[in-house]
Amino acid sequence: MELPLDHFRLIGVSPSATSEEILRAFQLRLDKTPDEGFTYEVLTQRSELLRLTADLLTDQDSRREYENLLLNGASGLDLSSNREVAGLILLWESGSPKEAFKIAKKALQPPQTPALGSSRESDLTLLAALTSRDAAIQEQEQRSYSKAADFLQDGIQLLQRMGKLGELRKNLEEDLVSLLPYRILDLLSRDLKDSESHKKGLSMLENLIIKRGGLEGKNKSEYSNFLNQQEFESFFQQIKPFLTVQEQIDLFLELQKKGSSEAGFLAFLSLTAIGFARRKPEKLFEARKILKKLNLSGLDSMPLIGCLDLLLADIDQSLARFLSSSDEKLKDWLNSYPGEKLEAICIFCANWLENDVLVGYRDIDFKEIDLDSWFEDREIQEFIEQLENKSNRTILNPRSQNQLKLKTQESKKDLNMDTEFNSDNVEEGRLPLPGGVREDGQQIIEENIYTDEIVKNKAIQFYKYAIEKVAELKFIFGEVLENKRIVARSHYLTYLYAFLILFAFGLGVSFLRNNFKKSLQEKEIIENSSIINENKINFKKELNQDDMRQIPDKPAMILSERIEKNSFLAEEITTTSPSIEQIKYLVNTWLDNKRNFLAGKGEINLSKIVQNGLINRLTKERQLDIQKGIYKDIKTNIENIVLLNQTASRIAVSVDLRYSEKILKTNGELINETTFTPFLKVKYIFGFSNNSWKLVDYISGV
After folding, report:
1. How much is the pTM?
2. What is residue 78's three-state secondary structure?
3. Fold of 542-700
C-alpha cells in the first residue's frame, strides 16, 4: 500500500527540522498512543514505523538521500501489508482523516476484505468510524456541510454492514441528525443553476418541518434535542431569503394543508408579496381568502385586509377595516394623525409592505415602495375596472335598484366611523359598491341628496378649477387620486371627486381668509421690525459668527439663548406658508435638542414643534440607553434641503445630512461608531396643527 504521506509528516515535523527536534517529536508520538480501542498488534506496528522514520531522518546520509528522492518527484510511502493499518493510523493522526477514511473504506470492501473476526478487520472498522467523524468535522469547519454529511452517512453504512461498534454508530447518527439544518442551508444557498442541490435542499427542509409537527414544532421528533423551537425559528430566518417567493408559497400552502397555522399566515404574506411585486392583483384575493380563514391567537387581521383593500382601490372598505381593528393604539394613531385618514392608511400600508411583506425572498428586492407606480400600472387599472364592472353586474341588478335607500351624509359618516365592520359580508372577487355593506344579499347605497342632485349638476362647471387644485389636495386624499384613469373608472371615486370639487371651492374661500390674516401679521411684523433688528445687532456683537444660524422672522434673543443652553429653543412657526429657511430652522432645532438629550445633557421640551409621538419615542430611546449604561455623541450638519411638496396642512422636505454617531459607556469608553459617507438622506414630514407647524415623522435613507 502506498500512503499519501512522507516521513516528515508521518512523525510530525517540518522538512527543515533538526535531529534534536525529530527525536523530541518521535518521543512525543510514542507517549501519545491512541486509546480508542485499537489492538496491541497494530499499535506496536505504529511505534515501529515511527522508530524507522526517526532513524532515517536523524542519519545524515539517509536523510540526504531521501530528500533527493523528494526533490526528484517521489511522493508517498510504500508499506508492507502487515503495516498498512498502522500507516493509516499515522495518516489520520497527521491531519488527513478524509484520505485515511477513503483508504480504510476501500480496504474493507472486496476483494481486499480482511478475514472475518481478525484483528485487521477490527482495527480497520474502528479506524473507518473515527476517520469518517473527523472528516465530517473538517468539512464542517470549511462550511461544506453536505460533504460532511456524506462522510457520516458512509461511516454509518459501513458500520451497519460490518455489524460492529453499535455505540459509535449511534454517535455518528446523532452527528448526522444535528447536521441537517446546516446541510439544508448549504444546499439552498448555492447558485440557482445548481437545480439538483436546490431541489434536494427544499425536500429536506419540508421533511424536517413535517417531522417537527409544522413550523410550530408540535411533535416530539429525533430533532428535538438538537433544534428546539427558538433555534429552529432562528434557523428558518436564515433559510428563508434563499427561497424564491413561489417556492415559499408552495411550501407554506403544503404545510398549511397539514395543519400548520403559522404556515398559513406566511402563505398569506408570500401571496401578497408576489401580488404586489409581480403586479398580480388576483394573488391579493388569494391572500385575503387565506387570512380570513386563519385563527391565530393575538392576530388582528383587520388592518392587513384593509391594506389589500387599499391596493385594490377600495378606499371606503379599507378605512372600515382599519376602524374595526382591535388594536387601540393603531386606532388612536389613525384618529390623531394630523392629515387625512387616507394618507395615514397609505403610510401604514407602505411600511407594512416594506418591513413585513417584501422581505426574505431570493427573487424580490425592493429599494422603495411606490404606491403611485402600482396604481399607474395599466394591468392594475384594467383589473380594478373589470372588478368594478363585475360587481355592478352581480350586485346592482334591476330588482336591487328598486330597493336603493337614500341616507343623509351624517348617517353615512356614522356608518363608516362607528359600525363594527364584518369581513364575512364581503365575498371574494365581489367588492360592494361604496357607501354601505350587504344586507340580505343586496347592496344598500347611501347617498347624500345634496351630493346627488347638486354636485352632479355642477361637476362640469367646476371641473377646470378642480383640476388645478388636485395637486394641492393630493395630501388629503392620498396618492391614489393622482391617477385620473382610476378615478374615472371607480363609482366610489366619482363621488369622492365630486366632493373634491366642492372642497376646492371652499379652499378658495379659506385661502382669501388666510391671506387677510397674513396681511395683518405682516403689518404687525413691520411695526416691530425696528426693535427686532436692534436686538439682532446687539447680540451679533457678542456671539461667535461660526455659531450663528439665520432664522427668518425670529428675534436674535433666540440665538443668544441657544448659545447659553447649547441647543435651539423650540419656537413655533405659525405662518401658513413657511419659507425653506424656517423649515430648516425646525429641522435644526429638532436635531440639536435630540443630540443633547441623547448625550444626557438635560431634558427635552419640543412639544411646540414636534408631535408627541416622536417625543415619546425619543424619551424611550434615552431611557433604554440609561438602562444599558450608555449615551450617544451625535454630530449633524445640514448640507442641503429640498422642498418635496407643500400644501396647506402638510410639508415634506428632503435633507442631505452629514451624520456621525458614537455610542459610549458612561465612563467614556467607545463601544461603536457610525458615519454616513458622504451624507445621510432623510425625509422630514411636517403637519399644520393648532395653528403651527410640527414635525410629524422622518424617514431615513429615502
Report:
1. 0.51
2. strand
3. Nuclear Transport Factor 2; Chain: A, (3.10.450)
